[in-house]
Amino acid sequence: MDLKDKVVLVTGSSRGIGLEVARAFAMQGANVVLNARKPIDATIIQQIKDLGVNCWDISANVTDVDSVKNLINSILEQAGHLDVVVNNAGIVRDGLLNRMSEEDFNSVVKTNLVGTFNVIRQSLRSMYKQRSGCFINMASVVGLTGNIGQANYAASKAGIIGLTKSVAQEVALRNLRCNAIAPGMIDTQMTQQLSDKRQTEIINQIPLKRFGQIKEVAATAVFLAQNDYITGQTITVDGGLTMQ
Ligand code: NDP
């Protein structure tokens, strides 16, 4: 897919990986829709517009079906079409099983997995009509391996991988694709909060001996959108932490 003038929605793009993904698509000439639950800082929107593309900020909560319907309808009204959907919005509520509340489990699954389903479901009608486009879902290596203290998060991300393969099979006849990215430890606010000791322990387990950069995840999203013959895959971006 040539990304110039395409319209790309990135959910959860007020900061971190999502914002970098939006920037990376804008640098390819794509118009981008930023999204989070709250309005996004005006300076961020201007920085993306300065790359010479359109940038819309449409607040929506991916867990709420009506909010997602409004998001997709607003995109179609304002941008005219929707070509790439990056399901990136995600939360963590870590805790050991015996201390993990039902609310902690459900809220993570609802945001990460059900939120991804909601956005795909509501985008389908227009993408089926145009018979081109793709979905890119942000999973995690934890969805492949599991992790102590992350039963909710790992379940949600494993669910995203299964969802991705099912969607890929179902939409392929309409020339749509669906892939996932499974980042490992990426240098974000989340990983910067770990103690120096814990960061060193983790780095020692990574063959490439460093955390990943958000631009390395973003470049993978752009690659998956551009390559028209990849579907149903989960690409790990993890410095070799998990080798299948
Ligand atoms: P951040 O916490 O920095 O950003 C999450 C984004 O999602 C924010 O923009 C947040 O905005 C938004 N968001 C959260 N809940 C909702 C919701 N219900 N509806 C709409 N937007 C929402 O996360 P990261 O950048 O670190 O991670 C991005 C993705 O990558 C996540 O899916 C995460 O699981 C995944 N990932 C991250 C890794 C890492 O090392 N950082 C490793 C592996 C996977 P707001 O709160 O304002 O709504």
From TrEMBL:
Lipid metabolism recorded as keyword: yes
Documented EC number(s): 1.1.1.100
Catalytic activity: a (3R)-hydroxyacyl-[ACP] + NADP(+) = a 3-oxoacyl-[ACP] + NADPH + H(+)
Pathway, per record: Lipid metabolism; fatty acid biosynthesis
Key words of the record: Fatty acid biosynthesis, Fatty acid metabolism, Lipid biosynthesis, Lipid metabolism, NADP, Oxidoreductase
GO molecular function: 3-oxoacyl-[acyl-carrier-protein] reductase (NADPH) activity
Keyword Lipid biosynthesis in annotation: yes
Span of domain Ketoreductase: 6-189
Family note: Belongs to the short-chain dehydrogenases/reductases (SDR) family.
Subunit structure: Homotetramer.
Function according to Swiss-Prot or TrEMBL: Catalyzes the NADPH-dependent reduction of beta-ketoacyl-ACP substrates to beta-hydroxyacyl-ACP products, the first reductive step in the elongation cycle of fatty acid biosynthesis.
Protein name: 3-oxoacyl-[acyl-carrier-protein] reductase
Taxonomic lineage from the root: Bacteria, Bacillati, Bacillota, Bacilli, Lactobacillales
